[in-house]
Write a structure and sequence with these properties.
The chain folds into three domains: 2-101, Beta Barrel (OB fold (Dihydrolipoamide Acetyltransferase, E2P)); 109-168, E3-binding domain (Dihydrolipoamide Transferase), CATH 4.10.320; 189-406, 2-Layer Sandwich (Chloramphenicol Acetyltransferase). Helix content is 32%, strand content 24%. It has helices at residues 85-108, 112-117, 122-128, 132-141, 159-168, 188-203, 216-231, 238-249, 297-312, 391-406, and strands at 2-5, 15-20, 27-28, 33-38, 43-47, 52-57, 64-65, 70-76, 206-214, 258-261, 264-267, 273-275, 277-278, 284-285, 288-289, 326-329, 350-354, 358-366, 369-385. The strands form five sheets. Strands 9, 12, 15, 16, 17, 18 and 19 form a seven-stranded mixed sheet that branches. Helix 1 crosses helix 3 (122-128). The longest helix is centred in the first third of the chain and has 24 residues, at 85-108.
């Protein structure tokens, strides 16, 4: 008998058992997915540690599962003796209650009606096995999930499948009558986001400084080099420049890349930068690019490509979203000129905000003469934990960040 445990990556993050993919008595092969866990950030599958037979399920659906917790046990090798009847019954109860809960969740979100109309009932809901993200997207766009061809494992519908259908304009409206108002239960991610945001502003005094950055230099550089990057399968985005400049700016104010403790300030050598990635109505997630201080622009762009793709296809692991020492929120992509304060991701000490890029009329001195020019500008803000740094370090960091962006050599690689 060997133990099936919750992975230790992302230690300190509380997970919930979403569902078991196997029942007691089922034969499984090594690395085959056994159980799905959900945290406030990601969903993950726990694989079988060896080939054998699942013997016990100790944590059923909706049970809390801390890193290292015992999920169940399995017998290794070719043992096929009849499992303990109590364990089989426990597994059946677990699967039954899980299915009933999923059906209730759909009913609350107004999706079960469309399934009944299409000739499917609660049993179909159990077989669909939609993730919270997919269920919420179907609710938002009034989509019947049974009409979506899933591209995930075993034909499972993914968030990418829903987004693709919406983008194509081919979504089918539910036959259920429109409601004037309705209640949408909070999912685990939204509740955890709320908890974290409240804890951050309660714990840390937030102060925000704002500069303006001219994007002319990085726009010229990107225009000259994006084709070469694309030839290597790498998308060169503005975010890559922000990450590179942020990593370099840490040298001007190292305390920005730190963690507050009651008796000391922990200064980090590694610059692990989290980049906020929107997940529609569900909220956002912050995958972390590690050791950015050691990467060139190409390495940063390639790393961001991989993380963003994993985020939008719900393939991030606990390791992908943990260990950040600094965060960038590019809120300008959704049209915001300026946001304050952008709440710090505890236990970090600062967060960078990038506003919408737009052309503005400015005065620039040329050969001693003031001239009126049109320039691509954006507001950049740094929100800091005032326990950690003061205005001097904050402005020094922002000054260096802007200096790097505005002085980017057009031929640099």
């Amino acid at each position: 008998m060997i133990d099936i445990i919750v992975p230790m990556e992302g230690e300190g993050t509380q997970a919930i058992v979403a569902r078991w993919l196997k029942a007691v008595g089922d034969t499984v092969t090594e690395h085959e997915p056994l159980v799905e866990l959900e945290t406030d950030k990601v969903a993950m599958e726990v694989p079988a540690p060896a080939s054998g037979v699942l013997r016990e399920i100790l944590l059923g659906a909706d049970a809390e599962a801390a890193p290292g917790a015992l999920l169940g046990r399995m017998a290794v090798g070719g043992e096929t003796d009849t499992p303990n009847p109590a364990h089989v019954e426990r597994s059946r109860d677990t699967r039954s209650s899980e299915g009933e809960k999923r059906g209730l969740d759909f009913a609350r979100q107004g999706l079960s009606t469309s399934l009944e109309v299409s000739g499917l009932g609660t049993a179909a809901l159990r077989e669909l096995r939609l993730s919270p993200s997919v269920k919420r997207a179907c609710l938002q766009h009034d989509i019947d999930p049974t009409r979506i061809v899933g591209t995930g494992r075993n034909g499972r519908v993914t968030r990418a499948d829903v987004d693709k259908l919406v983008a194509s304009g081919g979504q089918k409206k539910s036959s259920a009558p429109a409601l004037a108002s309705r209640d949408v239960p909070h999912d685990r991610m939204r509740l955890k986001i709320a908890e974290n945001m409240l804890a951050s502003v309660t714990q840390a005094p937030h102060v925000t400084a704002v500069f303006e950055a001219d994007f002319t230099a990085i726009m010229r550089h990107r225009e000259r080099h994006k084709a070469a990057f694309a030839a290597k399968g790498i998308k060169l985005t503005y975010t890559a420049y922000f990450v590179a400049a942020a990593a370099e700016a840490m040298k001007a104010a190292p305390a920005i890349n730190s963690r507050w403790h009651e008796d000391r300030l922990e200064l980090f050598g590694d610059v692990n930068i989290g980049v906020g990635t929107a997940l529609g109505e569900k909220g956002l997630i912050v995958p972390v690019l590690r050791n950015t201080e050691q990467l060139d622009l190409e390495g940063i762009a390639a790393g961001l490509d991989q993380l963003v793709d994993k985020a939008r296809n719900e393939k991030l692991t606990g390791k992908d979203v943990s260990g950040g020492t600094f965060t960038i929120s590019n809120h300008g992509v959704s049209g915001s000129l300026f946001a304050s304060p952008i709440i710090i991701a505890q236990p970090q000490s600062a967060i960078l905000g990038i506003g919408k890029l737009e052309k503005r009329v400015v005065v620039r001195e040329v050969d001693g003469v003031d001239t009126i020019q049109i320039r691509p500008l954006a507001y950049v803000s740094l929100t800091i934990d005032h326990r950690v740094v003061d205005g001097h370090q904050t402005n020094a960091w922002l000054s260096r960040f802007v200096e790097i962006l505005e002085g980017w050599p057009v031929d640099a690689i």
